[in-house]
Amino acid sequence: MKPSRPLFRLFPAGLATAFVIATGVALAAAPGEDAFPIREYRLGATTHFGQRWVPDAIIPLIAEAGIGWIRDEIYPHHLSQPSPGVYEAGASTRHWIDLASHYNLKVVVILNDGRPSPGKPRLYERPDDYARAAAAIATQFRGKIHAIEVLNEPPHFGFMEAWKAGGASWSGLNPDGSVQLWIKKYVELLNATAIAVKAVNPDVKVIGCGANTQANYRMLREGVSPLVDGITDHPYSFQTVPELIPDASSPAALARDGFPVADAIGNFTSLISHYRAESLRTKGPRELWLTEWGWPSYSEGSHREPPSRQFNSGYSALYTPCTLHAQAAYTLRRYIESIATGVDVSVIYDFKDDGESRFNAEHNFGLVDYSLQPKPVYRALQRAIQALATLSPAPASAVRTRAFPFSERRDPRPITWNATATLRAPGDIRMYPFSDGKGGLTTAIWSAERAGNDMSPRAADIELVTGVPFSEVTATDLLTGDTEKITGVATAAGILLKRFPVPDYPVLVRLPVAATQESTTALSPGQSETPLSPTNAPAIAWRFYAGDAPERFAKGKITQASDANGGPFFTLDYDFGKTGVYAAVVTDKLSVAGANDIRFSIKNSSPCRLLLRVADKSGEIFQYTIIYDADEEWRDYRRDFDAGQARSVFGGDKNSRFDLPVTQVWIGLENPLRIGHPASGTLQVRDIGFRR
Question: Average pLDDT of the chain?
Fold first, then answer.
């Protein structure tokens, strides 16, 4: 059905209430009348019922959104002690936990305490008492709470301070290289809690760490008990986009920390893979819980800072002052990338605004505002949950995705964080396919750029390859709720969506079931190509190129092979040594007529500057520069045979017009050492093809 509004129109800021009225969706179902029975148990929201939020008004809203978990705190003053060492939660705590259970919400309880107080040891300073209190909670709320988190951010709210005599820094490392005492004491507390809780209620998960990632690694290396179910981390992106976290690997960061916790770009996905590897290496917990992250929709102008320090320094500088649109876009992007990378539970901070000042970042993280009116992010997330909660990441054999944008979206405001790395929004197009296990496939697509600039959604040719030709998909805009059918071009093995508008927030593209059920074999990347693809055939030879000045070129070796799916590609192993400037490969002579552009996919072992040359029939060369802003990840590129897009045009008939056929192609890179990366590595190139 054709929507009443154009696809991809932004959800109007401030009109959340109007949307509810127009659609007839009630703000909250009455108790026992859950209007949205789907629960996304991979997603949660932080609440503060332990700090006097009103559960009767808020929990139904959480349930309506489809969020599966709530994360809240219990402090010692919420517990009575009928006798020494015996703990019992009071009526207010029982009420919000009972109400959450009524709405089929799972609960993770943070057992917290305040800052150290002379003469009054905190609960966390007495590991046995802390463990007994946690076990009592697990017993009292059997079947109603599902996880206990051991403290919230141990470096920041008193725990590290209690053990500061043994060193107190966020990384947990002393200047002499020794691990600080608070790291050891936290591991002791975490392990004791896991033993006590599992003894009385094995079904309750025990999760913890929750410090800065570097400190979490040190905790894992101290020996976390196998009874601990999950590692917790709080991957706020602060001033950058959700695809990035501040802990990018760099020489300065490695010198400070001793190990990397992410790749050189700071990709969120690399944070996840590094955690998996570190936990496996240290025999740590199998699960990964991201128990806080979010973006505040606040304004500059805080009374806490003079105007000269409103942004990029001081209190408010921790977070970008996001628009309502940016908050919605970034939250959707992080949610989808979390479930796509297999994060066990991902928790948004927080569900409701904590205050009414529009100038205070901490007051404006909510999915709903202080008066409980939904922000655009609430409805957008609700739509995403309804579409994705029952889906799982699709296997690589089910669908292959490629995106060829018509423009680059470079970050206008890169961030330097802790003087160790410069973070730039990747600007690539992210695509994550999900499967319902019955042949249905849904792919989330967005542009990983800063949200809300003055440009319309970027256009890209999108290829979806399933092994079966089809010509129509259904696209849903998560900010507006609009859905429409889109006709593409059927290819030999899927569909090509030409000039598809890709906004800065996820759009869901659903494939017809028939497009996935007729093929059960693994897909070859080569299946996505049109007949104009001579360079994607093993018969076309590539050779190492040394140029006219071998001293300026790296040493290297080229290998042509097939990947796991049978698709041909080549690998260039290069070593620039001390003097090399370029490394390149070149084809034999070609004759490709009827082409308007060249397309290919590249993965390099570090970020680099790529060079592409394409020669026409006269020998005139169109040269392009491509910035590979990734770290061992595949990226798709297209370049038109247009003098305006080429960096330079030279040789041949010098008419600055590409006269077909294509006669030769060079692909190479400049020495990565120039931009601070290793001078040796591996470049992989696949799916080289041409299109009309």
Answer: 87
